[in-house]
C-alpha cells in the first residue's frame, strides 16, 4: 500500500477513528480481502481526482433531475440527491445469507397479509393480539376480502438493515405499503458506472437489471385481462411528494404511464385513464400513494390523491393494485415482537434475519419493562402514519420522560420500546478524506414468476455527521451505491424482455393523460414567455445604455415606449404604464424586480419557476438530454447569482445565456419528440403564446404614432427583439419602414417568427388533436384559429398604416391586432376545456391590459 497516497486520502488514519464494528475492517484489525483491492484503487486515484469524480457524480445527478423533496425545505423541488463515490461492498457469501433472510421475510409478511384480510386465523388463535391489528391505522376494514387470488399477494417488500456491534445484520423496520428507493438505487448505479467505470468492471458486481425485469414481468402477470398490451400506470401523489423523481424515473424506465389520482376515474366498476385520446382502461396500478388515501369514497374521504371507487373496482377483480390496498397494516412496529413466533407457526422456520428487540406496550409485562427502561430504549408509535418520529430515551429530560410515560399509560397499545442498536460504519468520502460514517442498507424484494427475488444490491444511506444514528434522506443523509460482489463476471442483461427472433413486436400507442397534456401546454407557453421577456429586456438594456451615452430626445422617447412595452409583454402591471414619470426616468427599480422578484407574476424568475414546475410534473416524458437543457434554463437565471449593483453588460450576457438555453431546449424537443398529441400540446402552447407576445409588442410600439426618428429606432428595436433584423436587411436592403416591418412580422408565411406563421402552425395542430370518433364538424378551437388566420391574411398593410385624422394610433391596425389577441385567449380557453383535466393547477389566464391602456 502506498503510504503517501493513503495519507493524502486519509485511509492511513481511518482505523484510528473506529469506535465499533466497521464494514471494511470488521473486528479483525485489518482491511477485509474483498475491500483491499477496492481501497488500493481508490488510493491510486488520489484525493483530488476522487473529488473531481464526486463532483462529476453530482453533476450527472443534477442534470438528470435526481431530487429528493425535503418537506421542511421551501426549495424542496430542487433539492439535489447526494451520492458518495465510495460504494458499500458486500461479499457473495454474506449476500447469500442476507438474500435468503429477505426472501423469508417477504414470504412471511405475505402470509400474514393474506390472513389478516382473509381467514384471520392468527387473531382467532391468539398468535396476534386483536388490539395490535385493529388499533393500527393501516388496517382498512373495507379491504377485507379484496386481496387478489394469487399466491404472492405482497408484490414489493423492502427492509432497512443495519449491522450491530456483534457483526450480525438486524432488520430495523419493514416496508410493505409502497416501498421507495429502488429507482434511486438504479440511478446511483448508472452514475457510478460512469464515474468509476474501470473499478466497477474489475470488481465483478452483480447487475440490477434482473430485478427490474422481474418487476415488469410480475406486474404484467397481475393483469386481470388476458390482453398482451395490458395498461399499467404508476399512481403518484404528484410532484410535491418526497420521492416524486423516483415515480417519474421508474415509469419512464419501465415504460408505464405516470398518473395522479385526478388522471383516473372509475366507471362501471373499471378504472379508466383520462387522456386527450379519450378514456383508456387501466389493468394494473403500481401505487405510490398511501393506501388509505387511494379511495376517498370508501377510505379517507378527505383525500384528493386517490380515485373514488377504486376499491370497488379491485373488489370486482377489474384492476390489480400493487401493493394491495391495506398492506400498510404490516408496517406495524409492534409486529416485530411477534415475528419469531409467527415464522415458526407459518413457515416452520426461525428467522434468518432477526428484528431489533421490540417490546409492545399493549402487553402488561412488556409495558412495565419499557416504562422502567425509558432512558435506554427507543420509543416509537406502532403506526408510521402518526408522523411521530423515534424518541431516543437517553436524550430526554426528566420532564420529557414524565410526559412520554403519561402518553404511554394513556394508550399503551399505540407504543413500542426498542433496543437502541449501534450501527456499523462504512467508509465515506467526507471533505476530501475517507472517514467512517454510520450506515443503513435498504434492500428490495419483488414477487417474480417463480417466487420472490431480491435485488442484488440496494440503497445504502449514511449519516452526514460522525456518530449520528439518525440516518435518513429527510435528515440530510447521503446515499451510496451497493456493490454485491460476484465470483465471476455477471451477465449483461436488459430491463426489457428480449422477444423471440420470429416474434414481431407491434407498437403501442400510449395515451397522453389530460394532466400531462395540460403541463406540456404550459411548458410551451411559459417557455415562450421567458424568451419574449428575455429578448425584449435585452433590447431595453441596450437602448438604456445608448440613451445614457446620447442626449437625443428620440433615444429617450424610444426607451420610454420600450419600457411600457416591457410591462405589456410581461403582464407585470402596473409597472412602467403606471402614472409615475419617475419610473421612466429611473427604470432600475422596476427592471430589478423583473430580473429578480420570483414572487411577482410575469417576471423572468417567476416564469422560469412556472416552466420548471410544469416540466417537473411530467418528468417521465423527457429524455435525459432534454432534462439537462431544462436544468440549464433554471440554473442560468438563479436570482442569488446577480451582483449588486446590477451591471448592464453582465445582465446582457446572462440574457444571452438564457436565450441560448431556451433555443437548445426548443431544438432538442423539435428533433426528438414524435409528432403526436404531446408535441401538439407543447409546440401549440408555444405558438399561441408567441402570437400573444408578438401582438402585445406590436400594439405597445408600432401601433403608436411617433416622430420619424423615434419610430425608426422603435422599428429597429422590434426587429432586434424578434430576431428579425438581419432578415429584414437582407430582404429589403433599405431603411426600416413600418409597412415592410409589418409585412415581415405579420404577413410573411415563410418567417418562423411572423404572426401568420404562428397561426398557420396552430391551425394545423388543433386540426390534428384527437377528437370524438365520428365527429366531423369543425371544433370550437379550430373555428377560432381559422377566424384569426383569415383575419390576418386578408389585411391590407397600406390601409392599416394610413393616418386617420388626429388619432395617436393607427386605429385599423390596433383593431385587427386586438381582435386577434381576443381570439387567441378564447382559443386557449377552448383547448383547456376540451382536453385538460379539470383539476388543474394555477396558471395566468387573464389577457393583458392593452385594451385599457391604448
Automatic annotation (TrEMBL):
It comes from the Bacteria. Pfam families: Alpha-E, CP_ATPgrasp_2. Transmembrane segments: none annotated. Residues 87-463 form the Circularly permuted ATP-grasp type domain. Residues 512-836 form the DUF403 domain. InterPro entries: ATP-dep_Glu-Cys_Ligase-2 (IPR051680), CP_ATPgrasp_2 (IPR025841), DUF403 (IPR007296). This is Uncharacterized protein. It comes from Methylotuvimicrobium alcaliphilum (strain DSM 19304 / NCIMB 14124 / VKM B-2133 / 20Z).
Amino acid at each position: 500500500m502506498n503510504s503517501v497516497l493513503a495519507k493524502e486520502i486519509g485511509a492511513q488514519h481511518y482505523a484510528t477513528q473506529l469506535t465499533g464494528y466497521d464494514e471494511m475492517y470488521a473486528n479483525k484489525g485489518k482491511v477485509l480481502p474483498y475491500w483491499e483491492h477496492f481501497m488500493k484503487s481508490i488510493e491510486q486515484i488520489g484525493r483530488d481526482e476522487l473529488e473531481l469524480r464526486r463532483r462529476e457524480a453530482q453533476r450527472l445527478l443534477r442534470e438528470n433531475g435526481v431530487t429528493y423533496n425535503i418537506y421542511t425545505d421551501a426549495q424542496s423541488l430542487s433539492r439535489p440527491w447526494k451520492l458518495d463515490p465510495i460504494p458499500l461492498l458486500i461479499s457473495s457469501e454474506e449476500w447469500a445469507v442476507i438474500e435468503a433472510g429477505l426472501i423469508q421475510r417477504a414470504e412471511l409478511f405475505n402470509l400474514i397479509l393474506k390472513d389478516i384480510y382473509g381467514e384471520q386465523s392468527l387473531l382467532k388463535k391468539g398468535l396476534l393480539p386483536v388490539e395490535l391489528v385493529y388499533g393500527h391505522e393501516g388496517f382498512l376494514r373495507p379491504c377485507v376480502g379484496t386481496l387478489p387470488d394469487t399466491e404472492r399477494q405482497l408484490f414489493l417488500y423492502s427492509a432497512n438493515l443495519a449491522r450491530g456491534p456483534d457483526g450480525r445484520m438486524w432488520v430495523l423496520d419493514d416496508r410493505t405499503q409502497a416501498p421507495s428507493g429502488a429507482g434511486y438505487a438504479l440511478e446511483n448505479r448508472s452514475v457510478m458506472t460512469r464515474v468509476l467505470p474501470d473499478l466497477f468492471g474489475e470488481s465483478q458486481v452483480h447487475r440490477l437489471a434482473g430485478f427490474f425485469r422481474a418487476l415488469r414481468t410480475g406486474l404484467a402477470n397481475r393483469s386481470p385481462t388476458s390482453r398482451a398490451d395490458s395498461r399499467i400506470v404508476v399512481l403518484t401523489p404528484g410532484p410535491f411528494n418526497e420521492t416524486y423523481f423516483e415515480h417519474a424515473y421508474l415509469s419512464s424506465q419501465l415504460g408505464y404511464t405516470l398518473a395522479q389520482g385526478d388522471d383516473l376515474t372509475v366507471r362501471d366498476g373499471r378504472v379508466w385513464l383520462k387522456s386527450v385520446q379519450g378514456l383508456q382502461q387501466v389493468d394494473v396500478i403500481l401505487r405510490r400513494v398511501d393506501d388509505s388515501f387511494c379511495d376517498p369514497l370508501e377510505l379517507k374521504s378527505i383525500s384528493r390523491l386517490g380515485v373514488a371507487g377504486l376499491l370497488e373496482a379491485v373488489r370486482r377483480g377489474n384492476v390489480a393494485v400493487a401493493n394491495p390496498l391495506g398492506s400498510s397494516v404490516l408496517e406495524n412496529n409492534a409486529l416485530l415482537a411477534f415475528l419469531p413466533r409467527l415464522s415458526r407457526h407459518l413457515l416452520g422456520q426461525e428467522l434468518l434475519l432477526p428484528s431489533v428487540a421490540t417490546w409492545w406496550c399493549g402487553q402488561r409485562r412488556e409495558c412495565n419493562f419499557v416504562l422502567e427502561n425509558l432512558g435506554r430504549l427507543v420509543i416509537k408509535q406502532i403506526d408510521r402514519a402518526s408522523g411521530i418520529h423515534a424518541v431516543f430515551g437517553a436524550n430526554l429530560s426528566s420532564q420529557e420522560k414524565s410526559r412520554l410515560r403519561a402518553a404511554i399509560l394513556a394508550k399503551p397499545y399505540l407504543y413500542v420500546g426498542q433496543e437502541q442498536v449501534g450501527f456499523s460504519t462504512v467508509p465515506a468520502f467526507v471533505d476530501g478524506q475517507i472517514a467512517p460514517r454510520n450506515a443503513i442498507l435498504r434492500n428490495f424484494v419483488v414477487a417474480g414468476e417463480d417466487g420472490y427475488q431480491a435485488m442484488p444490491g440496494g440503497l445504502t444511506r449514511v449519516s452526514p455527521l460522525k456518530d449520528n444514528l439518525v440516518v435518513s434522506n429527510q435528515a440530510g443523509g447521503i446515499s451510496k451505491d451497493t456493490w454485491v460482489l460476484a465470483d465471476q463476471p455477471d451477465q449483461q442483461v436488459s430491463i426489457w424482455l428480449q422477444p423471440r427472433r420470429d416474434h414481431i413486436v407491434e407498437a403501442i400507442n400510449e395515451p397522453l393523460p389530460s394532466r400531462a397534456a395540460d403541463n406540456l401546454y404550459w411548458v410551451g407557453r411559459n417557455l415562450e414567455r421567458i424568451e419574449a421577456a428575455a429578448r425584449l429586456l435585452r433590447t431595453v438594456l441596450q437602448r438604456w445604455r445608448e440613451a445614457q451615452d446620447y442626449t437625443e430626445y428620440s433615444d429617450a422617447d424610444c426607451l420610454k415606449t420600450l419600457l411600457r412595452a416591457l410591462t405589456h409583454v410581461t403582464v407585470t402591471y402596473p409597472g412602467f404604464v403606471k402614472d409615475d414619470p419617475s419610473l421612466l426616468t429611473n427604470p432600475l427599480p422596476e427592471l430589478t424586480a423583473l430580473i429578480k422578484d420570483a414572487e411577482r407574476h410575469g417576471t423572468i424568475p417567476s416564469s422560469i419557476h412556472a416552466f420548471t414546475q410544469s416540466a417537473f410534473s411530467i418528468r417521465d416524458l423527457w429524455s435525459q438530454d432534454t432534462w439537462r437543457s431544462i436544468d440549464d434554463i433554471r440554473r442560468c437565471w438563479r436570482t442569488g447569482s446577480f451582483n449588486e449593483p446590477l451591471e448592464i453588460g453582465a445582465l446582457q450576457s446572462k440574457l444571452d445565456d438564457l436565450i441560448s438555453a431556451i433555443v437548445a431546449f426548443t431544438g432538442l424537443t423539435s428533433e426528438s419528440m414524435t409528432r403526436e398529441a404531446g408535441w401538439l400540446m407543447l409546440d401549440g402552447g408555444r405558438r399561441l403564446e408567441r402570437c400573444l407576445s408578438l401582438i402585445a409588442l406590436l400594439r405597445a410600439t408600432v401601433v403608436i404614432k411617433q416622430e420619424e426618428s423615434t419610430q425608426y429606432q422603435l422599428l429597429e428595436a422590434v426587429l432586434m427583439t424578434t430576431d428579425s433584423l438581419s432578415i429584414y436587411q437582407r430582404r429589403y436592403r433599405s431603411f426600416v419602414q413600418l409597412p415592410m416591418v409589418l409585412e415581415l412580422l405579420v404577413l410573411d408565411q415563410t418567417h418562423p417568427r411572423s404572426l401568420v406563421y404562428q397561426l398557420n402552425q396552430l391551425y394545423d395542430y388543433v386540426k390534428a388533436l384527437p377528437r370524438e370518433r365520428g365527429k366531423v364538424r369543425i371544433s370550437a378551437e379550430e373555428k377560432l384559429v381559422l377566424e384569426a388566420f383569415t383575419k390576418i391574411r386578408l389585411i391590407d398593410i397600406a390601409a392599416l398604416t394610413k393616418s386617420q385624422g388626429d388619432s395617436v394610433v393607427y386605429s385599423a391596425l390596433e383593431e385587427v391586432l386586438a381582435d386577434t389577441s381576443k381570439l387567441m385567449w378564447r382559443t386557449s380557453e377552448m383547448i383547456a376545456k376540451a382536453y385538460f383535466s379539470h383539476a388543474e393547477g394555477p396558471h395566468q389566464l387573464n389577457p393583458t391590459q392593452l385594451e385599457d391602456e391604448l
